[in-house]
Amino acid sequence: MTESSPLIAVVGATGQQGGAVSAALLDRGARVRALVRDPRSGRASALADRGVELVPGDLTDAASLDRFLKGADAAYAMTTMTGPDGTEGETAAGIAVADAARRADLRHLVYSSVGGAERHTGIPHFESKRRVEEHIRDLGIHATFLRPVFLMENFLHYGVGVGEDGLVVRLPLPDAVPLEMIAVRDVGGAAASILLGGTGVEGSAIEIAGDRRTGSQIAAAFGETANLPARYDALPLDTVIPDMAAMFRWFAETPAYQGDFDATRALVDGIGGPLDLPAWIRASGWKAGR
């Protein structure tokens, strides 16, 4: 990393996806700048230890966004609906970053959207990202829309359990419907490739995916790793929260995710190609019952 290395500003660098993007950029010799609420936090300090430049601020403060983007060669924006304002807050945050990119005359903005965002799904946390995409287009700035499918890391939080009779994967999705998925590591690798340029997808939208499996195949992958018998149970939609029910209903009733596996492979070729689910399970350190 030198002063002549490209400077990439990353929104969400202390989080899961933004952290993966930052790590991939650093591994390729780029300089990384992160917008952080608290530079003294553990996650921010870990970034600083790797040489990341920290800019205090948040997405509601236009002045801090302007400082954050000043002099950057490109930026990556990851927003979530997990704050108190939910999807409306996510839309507002994405719009704020886009407006700041316009003010900074940023050469390239990569916006982390979601697979299917352009298809008017009606899923609240997909629609919030679609609205941000539309605003970015209306501004006329040079942007790439990175649309990951279902994240494998979701399995660390729900869907996989262990009972007396073995391992059980439970999702509100018929077993006959395959689910496209991708590891966060590969989202980071793909984003880094696009931010550093020369991939041929800059200025477009790309839906990225690393694997595609039915419920029974997902269960088998976890069962093999845990050395346990495994089965899949399809849950009724009314057993999950409304946003999740809307998402899994879309998965089941339409040609949902449409990941470009070949393009994804090309984007992450430098880190060994995208992880399939068994490889991700091994790499993630997942253990049965944890």
From TrEMBL:
<dbReference type="Pfam" id="PF05368">
    <property type="entry name" value="NmrA"/>
</dbReference>
<comment type="similarity">
    <text>Belongs to the NmrA-type oxidoreductase family.</text>
</comment>
<protein>
    <submittedName>
        <fullName>NAD(P)H-binding protein</fullName>
    </submittedName>
</protein>
<dbReference type="InterPro" id="IPR051164">
    <property type="entry name" value="NmrA-like_oxidored"/>
</dbReference>
<dbReference type="InterPro" id="IPR008030">
    <property type="entry name" value="NmrA-like"/>
</dbReference>
<feature type="domain" description="NmrA-like">
    <location>
        <begin position="7"/>
        <end position="258"/>
    </location>
</feature>
<keyword id="KW-0521">NADP</keyword>
<dbReference type="InterPro" id="IPR036291">
    <property type="entry name" value="NAD(P)-bd_dom_sf"/>
</dbReference>
